[in-house]
Design brief:
Shape of chain A: elongated
Strand order of the largest sheet of chain A: 1-3-2
CATH architecture of the domain at 61-123 in chain A: Orthogonal Bundle
Distance between the termini of chain A: 30 Å
Oligomer: homodimer
Low-confidence stretches of chain A: none
Structural class of chain A: mainly alpha
CATH class of the domain at 61-123 in chain A: Mainly Alpha
CATH topology of the domain at 61-123 in chain A: Arc Repressor Mutant, subunit A
Chain lengths: 123, 123
Amino acid sequence: MQQSFMPEIAVCDCESIHEDVVAAVRGQLPEEDLMIDMAEAFRIFGDSTRVRILFALKAHEMCVCDISVLLGMTKSAVSHQLRILKQVNLVKYRKVGRVVYYSLADEHVKTIFSACMEHVMED
Amino acid sequence: MQQSFMPEIAVCDCESIHEDVVAAVRGQLPEEDLMIDMAEAFRIFGDSTRVRILFALKAHEMCVCDISVLLGMTKSAVSHQLRILKQVNLVKYRKVGRVVYYSLADEHVKTIFSACMEHVMED
DNA sequence: TTTATGGTTGAACAACTGTTCAACTGTTAG
DNA sequence: CTAACAGTTGAACAGTTGTTCAACCATAAA
Protein backbone atom coordinates (compact mmCIF):
# COMPACT_ATOMS: atom_id res chain seq x y z
CA MET A 1 0.00 0.00 0.00
CA GLN A 2 2.80 2.56 0.60
CA GLN A 3 2.43 5.82 2.44
CA SER A 4 -1.05 6.93 1.42
CA PHE A 5 -1.12 10.49 2.73
CA MET A 6 0.18 11.88 -0.54
CA PRO A 7 -0.94 15.40 -1.43
CA GLU A 8 -3.87 15.55 -3.85
CA ILE A 9 -2.01 17.90 -6.18
CA ALA A 10 1.57 17.29 -7.23
CA VAL A 11 3.50 20.33 -6.00
CA CYS A 12 7.17 21.17 -6.29
CA ASP A 13 9.03 24.17 -4.94
CA CYS A 14 11.02 25.34 -7.97
CA GLU A 15 11.03 25.97 -11.70
CA SER A 16 12.60 23.47 -14.02
CA ILE A 17 16.13 24.39 -15.03
CA HIS A 18 16.22 22.17 -18.11
CA GLU A 19 12.70 22.18 -19.49
CA ASP A 20 13.72 20.31 -22.63
CA VAL A 21 15.20 17.43 -20.65
CA VAL A 22 12.18 17.20 -18.36
CA ALA A 23 9.81 17.19 -21.32
CA ALA A 24 11.83 14.49 -23.08
CA VAL A 25 12.07 12.31 -19.99
CA ARG A 26 8.39 12.75 -19.26
CA GLY A 27 7.71 11.22 -22.65
CA GLN A 28 9.89 8.23 -21.87
CA LEU A 29 8.56 7.40 -18.40
CA PRO A 30 6.44 4.23 -18.12
CA GLU A 31 2.82 4.49 -17.02
CA GLU A 32 2.49 5.67 -13.44
CA ASP A 33 0.59 2.47 -12.57
CA LEU A 34 3.35 0.26 -13.89
CA MET A 35 5.93 1.96 -11.71
CA ILE A 36 3.66 1.66 -8.69
CA ASP A 37 3.09 -2.04 -9.38
CA MET A 38 6.81 -2.60 -9.76
CA ALA A 39 7.52 -0.92 -6.44
CA GLU A 40 4.77 -3.02 -4.89
CA ALA A 41 6.33 -6.20 -6.25
CA PHE A 42 9.77 -5.26 -4.97
CA ARG A 43 8.33 -4.39 -1.58
CA ILE A 44 7.19 -7.98 -1.15
CA PHE A 45 10.77 -9.18 -1.63
CA GLY A 46 12.08 -6.46 0.66
CA ASP A 47 11.75 -8.42 3.87
CA SER A 48 14.25 -11.05 4.95
CA THR A 49 11.64 -13.35 6.46
CA ARG A 50 9.79 -13.54 3.16
CA VAL A 51 13.04 -14.00 1.25
CA ARG A 52 14.01 -16.86 3.56
CA ILE A 53 10.61 -18.50 3.15
CA LEU A 54 10.86 -18.22 -0.63
CA PHE A 55 14.36 -19.70 -0.68
CA ALA A 56 13.13 -22.54 1.50
CA LEU A 57 10.20 -23.28 -0.77
CA LYS A 58 12.48 -23.00 -3.78
CA ALA A 59 14.30 -26.03 -2.36
CA HIS A 60 11.24 -28.08 -1.41
CA GLU A 61 7.52 -27.97 -0.72
CA MET A 62 6.99 -27.57 3.02
CA CYS A 63 4.29 -27.30 5.68
CA VAL A 64 4.01 -24.32 8.04
CA CYS A 65 5.42 -26.34 10.92
CA ASP A 66 8.55 -27.27 9.01
CA ILE A 67 9.17 -23.71 7.83
CA SER A 68 8.62 -22.64 11.40
CA VAL A 69 11.31 -24.99 12.68
CA LEU A 70 13.67 -24.26 9.79
CA LEU A 71 13.57 -20.50 10.30
CA GLY A 72 13.19 -20.56 14.09
CA MET A 73 9.96 -18.58 14.10
CA THR A 74 6.48 -19.13 15.46
CA LYS A 75 3.86 -20.70 13.23
CA SER A 76 1.87 -17.50 13.56
CA ALA A 77 4.63 -15.28 12.21
CA VAL A 78 5.25 -17.69 9.33
CA SER A 79 1.55 -17.95 8.57
CA HIS A 80 1.18 -14.19 8.42
CA GLN A 81 3.99 -13.92 5.89
CA LEU A 82 2.64 -16.85 3.87
CA ARG A 83 -0.66 -15.05 3.62
CA ILE A 84 1.09 -12.05 2.05
CA LEU A 85 2.99 -14.28 -0.38
CA LYS A 86 -0.23 -16.08 -1.24
CA GLN A 87 -2.06 -12.81 -1.92
CA VAL A 88 0.44 -11.80 -4.59
CA ASN A 89 0.51 -15.30 -6.09
CA LEU A 90 4.10 -16.09 -5.22
CA VAL A 91 3.20 -19.27 -3.35
CA LYS A 92 0.43 -21.84 -3.63
CA TYR A 93 -0.71 -24.53 -1.21
CA ARG A 94 -2.43 -27.87 -0.90
CA LYS A 95 -4.13 -29.29 2.18
CA VAL A 96 -3.68 -32.85 3.42
CA GLY A 97 -5.73 -33.36 6.55
CA ARG A 98 -4.70 -30.62 8.96
CA VAL A 99 -1.36 -30.13 7.24
CA VAL A 100 -0.96 -27.35 4.66
CA TYR A 101 1.87 -27.74 2.18
CA TYR A 102 3.21 -24.56 0.59
CA SER A 103 5.27 -24.32 -2.60
CA LEU A 104 6.35 -21.68 -5.12
CA ALA A 105 3.58 -20.63 -7.47
CA ASP A 106 5.75 -20.00 -10.52
CA GLU A 107 9.26 -19.71 -11.88
CA HIS A 108 9.39 -15.93 -11.65
CA VAL A 109 10.84 -16.00 -8.18
CA LYS A 110 13.85 -17.92 -9.35
CA THR A 111 14.47 -15.52 -12.24
CA ILE A 112 14.21 -12.45 -10.07
CA PHE A 113 16.32 -13.94 -7.30
CA SER A 114 19.08 -14.79 -9.76
CA ALA A 115 19.14 -11.27 -11.20
CA CYS A 116 19.22 -9.75 -7.74
CA MET A 117 21.80 -12.14 -6.36
CA GLU A 118 24.28 -11.03 -9.02
CA HIS A 119 23.73 -7.43 -7.97
CA VAL A 120 24.24 -8.19 -4.28
CA MET A 121 27.31 -10.30 -4.94
CA GLU A 122 29.16 -7.55 -6.82
CA ASP A 123 29.36 -4.92 -4.07
CA MET B 1 17.91 -2.12 9.07
CA GLN B 2 14.63 -4.11 9.15
CA GLN B 3 12.76 -4.78 12.32
CA SER B 4 15.53 -5.11 14.85
CA PHE B 5 13.67 -6.45 17.87
CA MET B 6 14.21 -10.06 16.82
CA PRO B 7 14.50 -12.53 19.65
CA GLU B 8 18.09 -13.42 20.58
CA ILE B 9 17.31 -17.11 20.28
CA ALA B 10 15.37 -18.51 17.38
CA VAL B 11 12.26 -20.06 18.86
CA CYS B 12 9.41 -21.90 17.23
CA ASP B 13 6.29 -23.34 18.80
CA CYS B 14 6.17 -26.85 17.35
CA GLU B 15 8.13 -29.93 16.40
CA SER B 16 9.08 -30.51 12.80
CA ILE B 17 6.74 -32.92 11.03
CA HIS B 18 9.16 -33.79 8.24
CA GLU B 19 12.60 -33.72 9.80
CA ASP B 20 14.26 -35.12 6.70
CA VAL B 21 12.88 -32.36 4.49
CA VAL B 22 13.88 -29.65 6.96
CA ALA B 23 17.39 -31.05 7.22
CA ALA B 24 17.75 -31.25 3.45
CA VAL B 25 16.43 -27.73 2.87
CA ARG B 26 18.65 -26.35 5.63
CA GLY B 27 21.60 -27.62 3.68
CA GLN B 28 20.44 -25.87 0.53
CA LEU B 29 19.66 -22.46 2.00
CA PRO B 30 22.06 -19.65 1.07
CA GLU B 31 24.06 -17.89 3.77
CA GLU B 32 21.84 -15.93 6.16
CA ASP B 33 23.75 -12.74 5.30
CA LEU B 34 23.13 -13.17 1.61
CA MET B 35 19.40 -13.45 2.13
CA ILE B 36 19.41 -10.38 4.35
CA ASP B 37 21.40 -8.41 1.77
CA MET B 38 19.00 -9.48 -0.95
CA ALA B 39 16.00 -8.35 1.06
CA GLU B 40 17.80 -5.08 1.75
CA ALA B 41 18.41 -4.56 -1.96
CA PHE B 42 14.79 -5.27 -2.80
CA ARG B 43 13.64 -2.94 -0.07
CA ILE B 44 15.34 -0.04 -1.84
CA PHE B 45 13.30 -0.73 -4.97
CA GLY B 46 10.15 -1.18 -2.92
CA ASP B 47 9.11 2.46 -2.98
CA SER B 48 7.40 4.10 -5.93
CA THR B 49 9.17 7.43 -5.50
CA ARG B 50 12.55 5.72 -5.77
CA VAL B 51 11.39 3.64 -8.72
CA ARG B 52 10.17 6.78 -10.50
CA ILE B 53 13.46 8.56 -9.84
CA LEU B 54 15.41 5.60 -11.19
CA PHE B 55 13.26 5.39 -14.31
CA ALA B 56 13.77 9.11 -14.84
CA LEU B 57 17.55 8.84 -14.49
CA LYS B 58 17.50 5.79 -16.75
CA ALA B 59 16.23 8.13 -19.47
CA HIS B 60 18.60 11.04 -18.80
CA GLU B 61 20.95 12.60 -16.29
CA MET B 62 19.03 15.21 -14.29
CA CYS B 63 19.40 17.80 -11.56
CA VAL B 64 17.34 17.75 -8.35
CA CYS B 65 15.21 20.63 -9.54
CA ASP B 66 14.24 18.88 -12.77
CA ILE B 67 13.37 15.61 -11.00
CA SER B 68 11.38 17.68 -8.57
CA VAL B 69 9.32 19.24 -11.37
CA LEU B 70 9.03 15.98 -13.29
CA LEU B 71 7.66 14.05 -10.32
CA GLY B 72 5.75 16.91 -8.72
CA MET B 73 7.57 16.68 -5.41
CA THR B 74 9.56 19.09 -3.26
CA LYS B 75 13.32 19.25 -3.72
CA SER B 76 13.65 18.10 -0.13
CA ALA B 77 11.68 14.91 -0.64
CA VAL B 78 13.62 14.15 -3.81
CA SER B 79 16.93 14.91 -2.13
CA HIS B 80 16.15 12.56 0.76
CA GLN B 81 15.44 9.71 -1.66
CA LEU B 82 18.52 10.50 -3.74
CA ARG B 83 20.60 10.23 -0.59
CA ILE B 84 19.29 6.69 -0.04
CA LEU B 85 19.96 5.74 -3.65
CA LYS B 86 23.44 7.25 -3.39
CA GLN B 87 24.20 5.29 -0.20
CA VAL B 88 23.60 1.98 -1.94
CA ASN B 89 25.49 3.04 -5.05
CA LEU B 90 22.53 3.04 -7.41
CA VAL B 91 23.08 6.66 -8.46
CA LYS B 92 26.10 8.90 -8.81
CA TYR B 93 26.35 12.68 -9.18
CA ARG B 94 28.50 15.52 -10.46
CA LYS B 95 28.38 19.13 -9.37
CA VAL B 96 28.42 22.09 -11.75
CA GLY B 97 28.25 25.30 -9.78
CA ARG B 98 25.24 24.97 -7.51
CA VAL B 99 23.61 22.41 -9.73
CA VAL B 100 23.97 18.71 -8.89
CA TYR B 101 23.43 16.29 -11.74
CA TYR B 102 22.38 12.76 -10.83
CA SER B 103 22.63 9.68 -13.04
CA LEU B 104 22.48 5.90 -12.71
CA ALA B 105 25.62 4.41 -11.20
CA ASP B 106 25.58 1.16 -13.14
CA GLU B 107 23.65 -1.10 -15.49
CA HIS B 108 22.26 -3.35 -12.75
CA VAL B 109 19.16 -1.24 -12.36
CA LYS B 110 18.18 -1.81 -15.97
CA THR B 111 18.66 -5.57 -15.67
CA ILE B 112 16.65 -5.85 -12.49
CA PHE B 113 13.90 -3.55 -13.76
CA SER B 114 13.55 -5.66 -16.90
CA ALA B 115 13.25 -8.90 -14.94
CA CYS B 116 10.69 -7.38 -12.61
CA MET B 117 8.69 -5.70 -15.33
CA GLU B 118 8.06 -9.06 -16.96
CA HIS B 119 6.77 -10.38 -13.67
CA VAL B 120 4.44 -7.42 -13.14
CA MET B 121 3.18 -7.53 -16.73
CA GLU B 122 2.07 -11.15 -16.52
CA ASP B 123 -0.50 -10.83 -13.76
C1' DT C 1 29.00 42.29 0.72
C1' DT C 2 24.28 41.18 -0.01
C1' DT C 3 20.72 38.57 -2.17
C1' DA C 4 18.91 34.75 -4.51
C1' DT C 5 18.85 30.09 -5.46
C1' DG C 6 20.12 24.88 -5.91
C1' DG C 7 20.52 21.59 -2.79
C1' DT C 8 21.10 19.22 1.83
C1' DT C 9 19.93 18.09 6.48
C1' DG C 10 17.61 16.84 10.95
C1' DA C 11 13.56 16.79 13.69
C1' DA C 12 8.83 15.77 13.84
C1' DC C 13 4.80 13.36 12.47
C1' DA C 14 1.55 10.18 10.59
C1' DA C 15 1.24 5.96 8.25
C1' DC C 16 2.87 1.48 7.75
C1' DT C 17 5.00 -3.04 8.99
C1' DG C 18 6.36 -7.45 11.26
C1' DT C 19 6.06 -10.09 15.43
C1' DT C 20 3.63 -11.45 19.44
C1' DC C 21 -0.26 -13.01 21.87
C1' DA C 22 -4.55 -15.06 22.55
C1' DA C 23 -8.46 -16.85 20.65
C1' DC C 24 -10.18 -19.51 17.19
C1' DT C 25 -11.16 -23.19 13.15
C1' DG C 26 -10.84 -27.59 11.39
C1' DT C 27 -9.17 -32.20 11.23
C1' DT C 28 -7.30 -36.39 13.46
C1' DA C 29 -6.73 -39.73 17.19
C1' DG C 30 -8.36 -41.91 21.30
C1' DC D 1 -17.60 -36.94 22.50
C1' DT D 2 -13.04 -35.04 23.90
C1' DA D 3 -8.18 -33.94 23.57
C1' DA D 4 -4.53 -32.69 20.74
C1' DC D 5 -2.60 -30.29 17.17
C1' DA D 6 -1.77 -27.81 12.39
C1' DG D 7 -2.80 -23.64 10.98
C1' DT D 8 -5.26 -19.01 10.75
C1' DT D 9 -6.70 -14.60 12.31
C1' DG D 10 -7.17 -9.94 14.48
C1' DA D 11 -5.70 -6.69 17.87
C1' DA D 12 -1.89 -4.58 19.98
C1' DC D 13 2.70 -2.84 20.06
C1' DA D 14 7.22 -1.28 18.99
C1' DG D 15 10.06 -0.13 15.30
C1' DT D 16 10.55 1.78 10.70
C1' DT D 17 9.55 4.76 6.81
C1' DG D 18 8.54 8.79 3.66
C1' DT D 19 7.17 13.54 3.51
C1' DT D 20 7.04 18.01 5.45
C1' DC D 21 8.99 21.95 7.52
C1' DA D 22 12.44 25.05 8.78
C1' DA D 23 17.02 25.99 9.01
C1' DC D 24 21.09 25.66 6.81
C1' DC D 25 25.29 25.45 3.32
C1' DA D 26 27.44 26.76 -0.98
C1' DT D 27 27.77 29.03 -5.20
C1' DA D 28 26.40 32.71 -8.44
C1' DA D 29 24.59 37.16 -9.59
C1' DA D 30 23.97 42.03 -8.39
